[in-house]
């Protein structure tokens, strides 16, 4: 459940919107409670720089690189985010790159009672990033890359509902969950936009992106008829490796620092994003509300 990118191809847009509705079925994990001990997929939603050298769980067998380590992080718990950050700050003197890559489309609430999609896709990453900022600044030039999705185009942030219900909206049917996913992706884009402003005098830059249409394990729990229905679209999907290219571009490409705050797609900045992705007031409001939700203000 690490990559949950919604399907979008420019020329198939309206067709795919219909398909996406079905996709919301596919993308839902089994409604089992996240088991922190056993759900290893959920425990590694953040990509930690290979610079990290201390070790809780060695994963060099899988990667062939003994510099890669795995630390537990449950983004559905702000408490877990805090202890993860404490752990990282205690054991690692540098942080060069943070890739906010986790996403889900599940119902339910986070540990602190936020809607699951808002809490994980936005708020957990928000707190994670903010708590790591000083270390990122001290390690500059450094970067924060946040994987959004073209789904942001269907997103809208209802601040009243967020304030009163700690969720984007009421209701958790599949279509509502899909919309909440889009709202959370708009949050990712606005978060990056605001973060860039706040980082103007630092050597930290940040980018959000649409990773493309990616075939991942996301549909593994789907029913057979959904898999059949989905098969034609599946042929158009790229594999996870090609799907990581825009993320890698934002993380590694030299000379894009002046594009901090931008939204990338196909390894290039998209300069004509929708106005709602450049709404200064909404970006600021989202930041401040997130701070207050996290007890930072
Ligand atoms: C940014 O990096 C440059 C070059 O390494 C350095 O001279 C400058 O002090 C840094 N600025 C900040 C705000 O850290």
From TrEMBL:
Give yes or no: UniProt keyword Transmembrane. yes
Q: Which UniProt keywords apply?
A: Membrane, Oxidoreductase, Transmembrane, Transmembrane helix
Q: Establish whether keyword Membrane is in the entry.
A: yes
**One GO molecular function term?**
oxidoreductase activity
Q: Which Pfam families match?
A: adh_short (PF00106)
Q: Which residue ranges traverse the bilayer? A: 6-26
> Which family is annotated?
Belongs to the short-chain dehydrogenases/reductases (SDR) family.
This protein is called what? Answer: Dehydrogenase/reductase (SDR family) member 13a, duplicate 3
